[in-house]
Amino acid sequence: MASPIMLVTGGSRGIGAAIARLAAERGYDVALTYTSKPDEAEQVATEIRGKGRRALVVKADLGVEADIVRMFEEVDTGLGRLTCLVNNAGILPRPSRLADADWADLRRVMEINLLGAEIACLEAIKRMSTKRGGTGGSIVLMGSRAGFYGAPGRAIAYATSKGALDAFTYGLGKEVAAEGIRVNIVSPGPISTDMNNEVSQPDRIQEIPMGRYGRADEVAKAVLFLASDEASFTSSASLMVSGAR
Description:
This protein is of the alpha/beta class. About 45% of the residues lie in helices and about 15% in strands.
């Protein structure tokens, strides 16, 4: 029996790398993408192969449609028919108030965090949908609790992109439910990753009821639950991994 195949965008470090590693432990062959650090991506792939699973590394900019299309074609050729898409790739611009933000940064956030996620889901559906000859599958998007509280003074554009992903998840899950595809979103609170640590503020831990930052592996476990058959009747759902924030 063929192994399930998972594509993790932004899988070279942080939460994405944790998802890719755990997926391999759970029996998936894994494709992971990177944009600028191939050595980090290859290190994750080496760990996956060490667990006895196949791994494929793809360079792709999720803000470029042609890259997204090619990414899926490389997975088709290199691993086979996709079982699960985890759309984890995203960017967090430098902290600023909206009035001080750069137009190019605002556009780039939306292109990668929102539009790129939508195009990736479009390509995944083409391969998974039972109405298009597929056998079904699962899509898990990476949201953020910032989409709920708005991140004023720091990252309103980022929060907006993630809040829009919630609406996208709710709608898309309903749209493809009869085609054998489940669509869910994981919404982390503050997680200790390179990206978050670069812009974090020391006093933010006071905002977390559990009194600590989350770990990447804690988010990965939530993602793998939603991807699995254990969540077979769960779609259009948001799972908060936020220490009660």
